[in-house]
Specification:
Elements: H1 8-17, H2 23-34, H3 48-57, E1 64-70, E2 76-82, E3 85-86, E4 103-104, E5 107-116, E6 119-123, E7 127-129, E8 144-147, H4 150-163, E9 171-176, H5 186-196, E10 209-213, H6 217-224, E11 231-235, H7 241-247, H8 250-253, H9 256-265, E12 274-280, H10 288-297, E13 304-310, H11 323-335, E14 340-342
Parallel strand pairs: 6-9, 9-10, 10-11, 11-12, 12-13, 13-14
Antiparallel strand pairs: 1-2, 2-5, 3-4, 5-6, 7-8
Helix pairs in contact: 1-2, 4-5, 6-9, 10-11
This protein binds iron/sulfur cluster.
Amino acid sequence: MELLGKSKDELREMCVAMGEPGYRGGQIYHALYAERKFEVGQITNLPAGLRTRLAAEATITVPVVKQRFESRDGSVRYLFELAGKEKDGIDQGGAEGREKRRTLRPASVEAVFMPSEGRQTICVSTQAGCAVDCQFCMTAQLGLIRNLTAGEIVAQVLLPLEEHKERLAPRTNIVLMGQGEPLLNYEAVMAALRILLDNAGVRIAPRHATLSTSGIVPGIERLAAEELRPKLAISLNASCDEQRDRLMPINKKYPLSVLLEACKKFPRGAREYVTFEYVLLGGVNDSPEDARRVAKMMTDLGRVKVNLIPWNPGALPYAEPTAERVNAFHKILLEKGVPAFTRYSRGRDVMAACGQLALLQIENAPPSVDDSR
Ligand code: SF4
């Protein structure tokens, strides 16, 4: 029986089933997520008898740090090894909700820890590999290996926080922008977020959590109806359907008109924006015409902003945009009244930048993930 990833209610039910009072479940929950205790023996406020029983019957499985790449900019990219195991319960099979029992294969995933003034941002993976096949993304090259469990997602936040506990800034941001499409692993992602954003759990403020999607419209609609939800970011990367069909084949299933309508309807709290991420690929989607089309797209969508991310050179055949093209694109958006920001990815030297997470095991290499959210 795996404890990491279980909700407070599940832990309570487990304790009751063991003949213990339900509040013991709350103590385990606090120890796992607020105190980051990964061994039953460390949960010293539990009676010795319960600890002995849990040690025999339950596990707390944290991923193994296989490699750690430290960037010159202070970012750390982790390569985690995930154990293969029988999965508790039933896998809902993503947004479509197919139910099937499954055994989890061993897998490797990456997370990136990015410290900056007053905060740290942790970019986590939600799947090992990805099936979405965005043409500019290194992760797509892996294909989908498997969905991560809620515990494996939460652990990618807990482990870096524990490792840097002596020098943590007051605020932690999380971005679901690592390997995988979060909305195709919906149940596990939401179970993880309920723990991460819980005041009695990991205590990350919902406004400091961002979920980035390639545009899985049923998932966006489902997320919109959640009581507790992260901010929404859309990986846009194209200025028209024809271009997006080529760069992100998922667009053929959920074309821009359908995607933008879902974004328009997505609820926003005070001062909350839907963010559109736009990776600028030199000579592909970075022209002034592209900028004008993107600006037009942004009208009537409610509060939105655009993050421009100049392409990080990698193993794929795309070119970095010139500084002139980046500046001109940015200027057109601003002139059209669209809030726009240019984000140079962090951790380029360790292949931790956007679209670069693909298990590259670079010796002595440092990560580009936007940590400004
Ligand atoms: S950009 Fe995101 S959704 Fe697209 S292939 Fe890469 S990981 Fe998957």
